[in-house]
Specification:
362 residues
Length: 362
Amino acid sequence: MTWLAVPLYAYSQGMSNAEIGALFAAPVLAQAPLNLVGGAYTDRIGGRLIMLGSCFVVIAAGIWFIFAHGFWMLMAGQVALILSRAAFWPATWAMASELPGERGLQLGRLNAVTNFGQIVGTVLCGFVLAAAGFQATFAVLAATGIISLFAGLATPARGARAPGAARHPLAGYLPLLRKRIMLYTMLCAYLSALPFSLTMSFYPLLLAQFGHGEGTSGILLGLRAVGSIFASLLAARFVRSGPQTLWPVVCGLAVAAAVGLVPTVNHVAPIAFWMLVVGAGTAAMTLYFQITISEASAPAERGSALALGGLGWSVSHLSTPLIMGFLADRYGIVAGFYVLGGFALVGALVIALTRRWAFQPG
């Protein structure tokens, strides 16, 4: 919901593209370290408590945005939301990797459910914005957080694998950083998150510039999640890790094409097609790096490993809005999408050249 509402809310208050980019990039400076702390404490106290805490923060942020006005109040709300996400994702990924059954299928189902939530959120946000305005939209966000909290309370608790009392929670990251596979998965996570970073910042502004209303924009943004749902459920049976698979390369090329070509024709049909493609590509890439990290890490360090690999998401959320904000102010938002599409293409080529190196010992 906030991916559509917050940039439009900031734009309605007269903020520049650079300020809107900063709203989405600056809080990520706090997300990266908290992401690591959340992953470490997921291994220590279990993912359920971390998940419940993130639901509390979403409720508070929704209420805060109702009264927020001006750059710094919006920035405070963004910080709260990003900190909530930073703790939530490694916790739920680790919980899903421990479920009985095939790991790829379970992670694929989790990703499909979360993308369904993105469809409901973006479409609902578009219609509530058009019908009742920003304050009502943020009230619905807070209510959704309350529902999520009760759903989390109903989730059965699983025993945490507590390390030795003398061991610092962050001590496990140094051995993980020595593994080539972690650097490789960070790059995969970065490329998979690049469309997410644009969806929550500049996709809504591109659609607004093209003359599409809030309702249409919500549906178009929701199509990215539709593509992700189908890819998560279908690819879960076929995505495999290892140096031989071409999954990350193909997914990276799909992301690059979808990002770079979405502004070429201002018509609902081609925009919808590229949103479906970018959703499918990012979902398959996300599933690939989740499976790769889960297979390369021991159960006692899985939360930390997923958090470390997920730093690629944090780097994307930090760099993409800033780069896009600069390009949009200087050259126009359409040119910015062309440049980022080329940048994603370079990332896909780097993945193609390094995938065999990444799986070598050392």
